[in-house]
Amino acid sequence: MTFPDNVNLRGSVYLVAGASGGIGKSLSTLLHSLNATVVLVDLSTESLVDLVDDLSKSNPNAPKPQVFAADISSESSLKDLTTWYSAHFQHINGLINCVGLLRTGESLKPISETSLSEWETIINVNLTGTFLLNRAFIPIMQKQRFGDIINISSVSGTQGRAFDGPYCSSKFGIIGLSESIAAEVSSSGIRVQCLLP
Prior knowledge:
By secondary structure, the chain is α/β, with parallel strands linked by helices. It is built from five helices and six strands. The protein has helices at 22-33, 49-58, 75-88, 116-144, 165-185, and strands at 13-17, 37-42, 66-69, 94-97, 147-152, 190-195. Strands 3-2-1-4-5-6 form a six-stranded parallel beta sheet, with helices on both faces. Strand 1 (13-17), helix 1 (22-33) and strand 2 (37-42) form a beta-alpha-beta unit. Helix 3 (75-88) packs parallel to helix 4 and helix 4 (116-144) runs parallel beside helix 5. The radius of gyration is 17 Å and the shape is globular. The N and C termini lie close together (12 Å). 36% of the residues are buried.
């Protein structure tokens, strides 16, 4: 995510889901440095305390980052998030989904040894979570008739890897889902992009 020189995003609001992870933290730091209001979302607020402190120190003139704990794979949790968001903000400029789960255990597994529980956990977090998060905020963007959505997939979403079936499947799915959503909402002034780090 890059911006031209001298960009000032003051007055803009960006929500970053998975903000405590590497990509989420980097994007949150960039947006905060450009004076955007950044809403940091992760499973727990405790995981974001240090990030809020670091951001506030790095650019004390920017709006203070806001924090909300949510499980994006939970429909009820996202309902709580959108209710809270709508009570605090009048608009949203960008939604960035950096939430991702590589695997449930330490080692790679062939499909023949992958349990249904392991499969469902990864698909629910990566793919269903992306669906639920996008679905939750698209109505807000459609009403305001603008907004950017960035969903993080992976190079594993373009070529399957042995012993990583659930992860690859979820990341392939994010690409297809993002393309489908983009075609649906472009007439509302919403841009949907999928990044493959």
